[in-house]
Structure formats: C-alpha cells, structure tokens
Sequence to fold (294 residues):
Amino acid sequence: MFSARSPVRVLSGLFSGLFLCGWGVLLPAGLSSCDTVFEGNLFENFAGPESASAILKKYSDGGSIPTARAPGFVSALDDAAGSPRFFRELSASDRAGLNEALESVYTADDNDVPKATRQKAAILAGQVNLRETAAGETVNNAIDVLTDGGIDTFEEDPEALLDQLLPSGVRGDQAKIAAVLNDLVNAAGAYEALGATLEASPGDPDPQMPAGTNKGAVAQNALVALVVKDIAKANGAGDAEAGIAALAAELAKPQGTRDPIVLPYDNGEEFAPEGSPLRNIFNAAGFGGVLDDV
Fold:
C-alpha cells in the first residue's frame, strides 16, 4: 500500500489538480508533441540542423563553455533544437557533452552570464536528457498512467506500477534502467537551477521564464524529474548517484524478488514549499496553487 505521502500519490494528486485547473490541454503538448510539432517542415530534409559536435567544437573549451561564449552557444543550440531531427540524431556521447556544456552555463555566476541565457541553458539541458530518450518515455508513461486511474489500478501492487512507468525496452536491464534514472536526475539538476532563477524578490516580484517557453511542458517534466531525484536520494542516503545504482539493481529484478524501495515524503515535510525550485517553476507556469493541495 502507498502511504498518504508516497511519491505516487504526490504525482497523482498533482496531475489531477492540473487537469482541474485546465492543464489537460497542455499535458499532451509535453515531450511527445514537442518532438512532432515541426514534423511538417518541408525544408528540413534539405538543410538539417547544425550537429551537436559542430556546436560543441565551436564554443566549448575542455567540455565547458567559457562565459563570454555562453550566449552564442545557447543561441546556436536553441536554433538547432528547433528541429526534431537534432534530438533524433544525438548519440549518447553527444548528449553527455551537451549536458556537461549546458551545466557549465546554467550554473555560472549571475554576474558572468545573463539570467535569460542561464534559464534557456537549463531548459535545453532538460530537453537533451528527455527528448527522444527512454527517460522521456518514462515521463510520458508517468503522465499517462497517473491520469488514467493508475493510482487505483496499482495501489495494491506498487511494483507493477514501477514497471509500468519504465519503457518496455529497458525493463529487466540494470544498465538501461540506470541510464534512464541518470537522465532524469540530470534533468532534475537543470530544473533545480531554472527554479532558482525564478524565485521572487523585491527587485523581481514576478520572475518569468524566457519568452516562447512551453511552460506547461517544463513544469510537468520538472515535476517527474525532481520526484525521481528525491526517490534516488532516499535510496542513496542522500546521494542521488548511489540511489540510482541501488534503484537500478532492485528494479532490474523480477517482481516479488525485490528488496523494499525507500520512498520520500513520508516524514511530514512539506512538498515543494514556497521558494523551492519546483514551486518557483509552477508559480512561473501559473499553476503554483495546485501544489497547495498536495
């Protein structure tokens, strides 16, 4: 049985609340539709996007991006990301290189890189880890299952729910499960950085994401990624990396043979309190009130 504060109940309650707030039309506009929105581009096959390796070669220095080059790097990557071909053609090493480069931008000092550039870098890092990946499929599966009665269907069998969230192509494979969890935790780190830029202050009482951002997609992806990171930390004594290894080892086992998985949010602590990265993202997306009911 799930406790009243289990991650599954947190996710289920949030997605239900978002539908009541009218977010139902935004949920399908998440990862999957982000990948297809440009499919009708007549000219895409004639002039494809600049490759990740070319962008990194032009802007990076030893894997990171010098602060002076950060705006140009993020602009070039954002242009390339406008084509779904860009994400379809990324190799694992491309994604690792982009993740490292983007992290060097979104974690840069406020005085060195403009906030809008750091925000866009964090959003792009989320996309690099989620679009056209098994981690992205996991996010979509979470949305599908938990908005389609999943909490009722699987309440008596949480292992079945966990298996349902993982894409079929990774189930039973410890290395592939670890890769999914690692991508989600990487995305969570980017969303934490994004949320930090969205904290209200006297000088900026209503901080916003960059113009043109699909705020609903960012919020839903951040929600799943950050909950997964919390689960990983709970199973790694506060260390997400250790938790990924422990979770992957258990989830790769057949149902009925797994050791108990530690779940967060069962200690009375408030979920996504004011000022937290996830709360800031939801506030900027216009859905902060939904968190009050969790």
Q: What stands out?
A: Residues 7-45+133-293 form one domain. The first helix runs from residue 7 to 20. The chain has 14 helices and no strands.
